[in-house]
Design brief:
The protein has 156 residues and is mainly beta. It has one domain. The longest helix has 18 residues. It is globular and about 45 Å long. 26% of the residues are buried.
């Protein structure tokens, strides 16, 4: 089983447990946990928007697994949308996103990925117990996007 699939199962399982604890209005979000074992870094929690427009649902759970030897990170995120704008009902999504490691020091990883409409940057610092995700729109891959739009999230 690949790490991305394993992480997706973990996130979905944790989210399902949280959702089973009560009605959708009382979703309990996963709390932050960060650890490093050898050449692997693993962070868990949920993203909270601190700047810019909302990109991810406020009800989310995330696992980021990084491998130094593979120079990659996989973010697996589950999101619950309450009254999804297009569907008018609840919607839960999950899926992995792959990142390329730009730098890896003793306790800090910086990784990026190029989505069609945005450049995404992850910064993880175990020493500071801090993880941040920056999403900046881009037109460079053919999307109708505004490069002045940027969202920042912190892991909680």
């Amino acid at each position: 089983m690949t790490n991305a699939i394993r992480n997706a199962r973990i996130v979905l399982g944790l989210t399902a447990v949280s959702l089973s604890c009560g009605p959708v209005g009382s979703v309990r979000l996963q709390t932050k946990n960060m650890q490093q074992e050898g050449n692997h870094m693993n962070v868990r929690g949920h993203w909270r928007l601190i700047q810019g427009p909302l990109v991810h649902s406020t009800e989310n759970a995330v696992v980021v697994w990084c491998s130094k030897s593979e120079a990659s990170c996989t973010e697996t995120r589950a999101e619950l949308y309450v009254k999804h704008p297009q569907l008018g009902t609840y919607l839960m999504t999950a899926g992995p996103e792959m990142y390329r490691v730009l730098s890896w020091s003793e306790d800090t990883v910086v990784a990026s990925r190029e989505a069609r409409a945005a450049d995404v940057l992850l910064r993880i610092s175990l020493r500071d117990r801090f993880a941040e995700k920056t999403i900046r729109e881009t037109r460079s891959r053919g999307a109708d996007a505004d490069p002045n739009v940027e969202s920042k999230y912190v892991l909680e």
